[in-house]
Design brief:
The chain has about 850 residues and is mainly beta.
Length: about 850
């Protein structure tokens, strides 16, 4: 595949040419930062101490004037802030300082008091800490004090002329309420993530995004001891797995439509769906509901899942963890991060894990090994480069489920046990070995406070040696299952490059955040060895007899015909703030996508090119600091290859969404989103009534529904994530399927709730409990609605204890041993869920 590799390298070269052009354009447009006079006056600049000072904690305390922000340090006198304030943002940079919070995480809090929108303390480069306090009506006034507690910033919000007068001061008859102290030492244990980038490709507060998006942070994955993406996404109601938890593939139904839109750090990577996603290197999972072609190009109409990986940190952190559990499950992982030099300009992170389990299915063993190193080079105050790599090796059989007759439908021969294996327990017959490699980089350069350049690249390589057994028919005796076998050695390469510029500017009193970018993608699938169809003897599903001689003659060999998909996308977005209460998001993207098939000699045998424009319009109105009302219109597209009876090429399939919703910050640590939507999927293929051997694009499907999610902390130590989804997904036009049929694998009702409580003080401080309820309603097993999968309620529980550097956890999945079915593909393939599973985990952090 030399030509494929050269084409990929050519794409990288084109990307660097784009970077060079954008750099020249941005440099010419660069303007000097304005000097802002603040109500607090310019901070005194003293001679800086050359030693690096650690900030070990952050406190935010309400006062009668506003808030105090306290930076805790053993050497407070060495903290010398420099004023960088602009507009409503009070910004103080503290040189020769580093954040030493747990896991090196930054500190963020929203709406601590009236008039203050947010407070953040972040590490902007290797030895500079930035304090940012954003006012609602204007720049907060500030005063600085040194104390035994640390460096204190005293902030008072700007009072507008229309703001009501201050409340009366307390008297002896009305004693003042005791101030509520908010002590935060990092975000590592929080369920609430206030800022995401998936919906806009910019760091935007969730409340300012005119679209429903749910974030599942690392802490949830740890509390639930999740090892598969399937289990993690149970926390997002209405997101239903298309494959079993034992599958080697990833795929989900979102808002009624099957999706393969699983991106990584904002970049497309189709190997995310042809190989399992390793959760050990995940920082958070972002679920963007609805079409997202305006930013990420072609994809399904239901939504997009963005995997955000862990990044190197400037503060040393080391974690070691081991797990044992049911079905001979064993696993271990490490997570190390910190600086490589004294200046903390070179940072590293290393994640690695190994895992094996027999699973509850007979003869179904899984093994995996995973390692992910990453490095960050802080080139200067405004420039950084992060290099990331992942390697995984997975071995397991192929999961094809059980027939519907005998599981969800009656069978005169009885009920098929859920642990029944209908493959062959011999490695030379039923094996699935996959090795994957990912290498990428993220480059960021900030020209000034308003303009930033970003360039991301990722290369992925998947090599698979796969013997896939599959059922072909269940005979009339309802016990003899006929099977086939495909022996394949194939590979996949994916190249993805994205370059964009983000700029902030004003037109009069209107604020703009402009995003302009270009991305390139190339995906190649080809045979690395022989691929052929082979005879395989039938099996008795009630009394299986496994035989090495069950494999018969070769029936057909498939030629090596590389399949190549390429894309070019140009996108533009403007986030417009007319005022603090009214915001508008306008975006559009133009795509050129090409698919072609080559023969073994590299000659093109068929090709198709399509063009598509995908718009998005979103409006946000915020009547108060706590409430955001929003509406959006967006479209998606997905290329459809082939031609109709008149030899006209098919047009791209389109998705069109209308959505309205409301986002509420009940407290500083608890938020929820309510969304109502309708999505129409058009240009769906269906049989041509004139000649059924051909297809036409008159099919249409429609999904409408309501979603509610809640995430955060109800009280100190009491965390929650969950929600409800009502989905009405139907066939509205089709020549083959009855109109009104429900789309398969889509429950009308789905509900999830996971909550933990950890004791905050006393002798049992650190002891915690967790409870999860996951309900999935009845779903149709196929588009013909010939059978259905029953509803189920799965209950999970957890008991954990953490003290200092030690953590122990007991997790029980399916506590009441409920028999349920995860998903179904057709009448020969339904997939039972796992019975009660117990896991014990011990971990150390230092």
């Amino acid at each position: 595949m030399k030509s494929s590799l050269l084409s990929g390298i050519g794409s990288v070269g084109l990307g660097f040419a784009v970077i060079n052009l954008l750099l020249q354009t941005a440099v010419r447009a660069e303007v000097e930062m304005p000097k802002v006079e603040t109500n607090a006056g310019q901070l005194l600049v003293q001679e800086l101490n050359t030693s690096v000072v650690e900030i070990t904690g952050v406190q935010v305390n309400p006062t009668d004037k506003g808030i105090d922000v306290i930076l805790e340090s053993a050497n407070t006198e060495a903290l010398q802030p420099l004023n960088r304030s602009t507009e409503n943002n009070y910004i103080a940079d503290i040189p020769n300082a580093v954040l030493a919070l747990p896991e090196g995480q930054d500190f963020n809090i929203t709406n601590p008091v009236g008039g203050i929108v947010s407070v953040s303390v972040t590490q902007v480069d290797s030895n500079t800490v930035r304090v940012t306090v954003t006012g609602e009506e204007g720049l907060p006034t500030a005063q600085l004090f040194d104390s035994d507690e640390g460096l204190i910033f005293e902030f008072a919000p700007t009072v507008s002329e229309t703001q009501p007068p201050e409340q009366e001061q307390p008297t002896s008859e009305t004693p003042p309420e005791a101030p509520i102290e908010l002590i935060v030492t990092g975000q590592q244990d929080s369920y609430l993530v206030p800022t995401v980038s998936t919906a806009t490709k910019t760091d935007t507060l969730l409340r300012d995004v005119p679209q429903a998006i749910q974030v599942i942070p690392r802490q949830v994955l740890q509390d639930q001891q999740v090892r598969r993406l399937n289990d993690a996404l149970r926390n997002a109601p209405g997101v239903i797995a298309d494959n079993s938890e034992r599958s080697v593939f990833e795929g989900f139904t979102i808002r009624g439509f099957s999706n393969r839109n699983i991106i990584r750090n904002g970049l497309r990577d189709d190997t995310n769906i042809t190989n399992n996603v390793n959760t050990e290197n995940i920082e958070q999972i972002e679920v963007l509901r609805g079409p997202a072609s305006v930013l990420f190009g072609q994809g399904g109409a239901g939504g997009t899942i963005n995997i955000v990986t862990k990044k190197p940190q400037s503060t040393p952190f080391y974690s070691i963890e081991g797990t044992i559990g049911s079905f001979d499950t064993y696993g271990g992982s490490i997570d190390f991060t910190g600086p490589l030099n004294d200046e903390r300009t070179l940072l590293y992170r290393l994640n690695a894990s190994t895992f094996r389990t027999d699973t509850f299915v007979d003869f179904f063993e899984r093994e995996s090994f995973f390692i992910a190193p990453s490095f960050t080079w802080l080139m200067g105050q405004n420039t950084q480069l992060t290099l990331e790599a992942e390697y995984s090796d997975q071995k397991q059989p192929n999961d094809r489920g059980l027939p519907a007759v005998g599981t969800v439908l009656p069978n005169p021969n009885g009920k098929i046990p859920r642990n029944r294996f209908l493959g062959e327990p011999f490695n030379e017959i039923d094996k699935n070995n996959r090795q994957s490699l990912r290498i990428g980089y993220n480059f960021e350069h900030r020209f000034n406070e308003n303009w930033q350049l970003r360039n991301n690249f990722n290369f992925s390589y998947l090599s698979a040696r796969q013997n896939s057994l599959f059922p072909t028919a269940l005979l009339d005796d309802n016990r003899t299952l006929e099977r086939g076998l495909v022996v394949a050695e194939f590979a996949q390469q994916a190249y993805n490059l994205d370059t964009n510029i983000v700029g902030n500017f004003k037109t009069g009193n209107i604020d703009h955040k402009l995003l302009f970018g270009i991305d390139l993608s190339r995906d190649i699938s080809y045979n690395e060895g022989r691929v052929f169809l082979q005879e395989l003897a039938s099996i008795d599903i009630f009394n299986p007899i496994y035989r090495r001689d069950s494999v018969g003659a070769e029936l057909e060999e498939f030629p090596n015909e590389p399949f190549i998909s390429q894309g070019l996308g140009i996108y533009l977005q403007d986030q417009i703030s007319f005022s603090e209460k009214l915001k508008l998001v306008l975006g559009g993207r133009f795509d050129i996508v090409t698919e072609k098939i080559e023969n073994a000699q590299g000659e093109t045998t068929s090709s198709q090119q399509d063009e598509a424009f995908s718009p998005r319009i979103g409006l946000v109105y915020q009547p108060s600091q706590a409430v955001s009302l929003y509406a959006n219109y967006s479209r998606s597209f997905q290329q459809v290859t082939g031609s109709n009876l008149d030899n006209r090429l098919f047009e791209p399939e389109r998705g069109t969404q209308y959505e309205v919703g409301m986002k509420v910050d009940w407290t500083n640590n608890l938020s929820s989103t309510l969304a109502l939507y309708q999505i129409t999927r058009s240009n769906v293929l269906t049989s041509d009534e004139i000649n059924p051997n051909f297809s036409i694009q008159t099919g249409e499907q429609r999904s409408r529904g309501i979603e509610l999610d809640v995430t955060g902390e109800i009280a100190p130590g009491w965390k929650i994530i969950g929600g409800y989804a009502y989905t009405d997904a139907q066939i509205t036009e089709d020549n083959d399927i009855p109109v009104g049929n429900r789309i398969n694998n889509v429950p009308e009702h789905a509900f999830s709730l996971w909550s933990t409580y950890e004791l905050q003080k006393g002798n049992l401080q650190g002891l915690g409990f967790g409870l999860g309820l996951f309900y999935v309603g009845e779903r149709q097993g196929d588009l013909g609605n010939s059978f259905s999968l029953p509803s189920y309620l799965r209950t999970d529980a957890a008991l954990f204890y953490r003290r200092n550097n030690f953590r122990a956890a007991l997790n029980l999945q399916n506590l009441f041993d409920t028999e349920y079915f995860e998903t179904g593909e057709n009448r020969l393939r339904v997939f039972p869920g796992a019975p009660r599973t117990v896991k014990v985990t011990l971990g150390w952090q230092f």
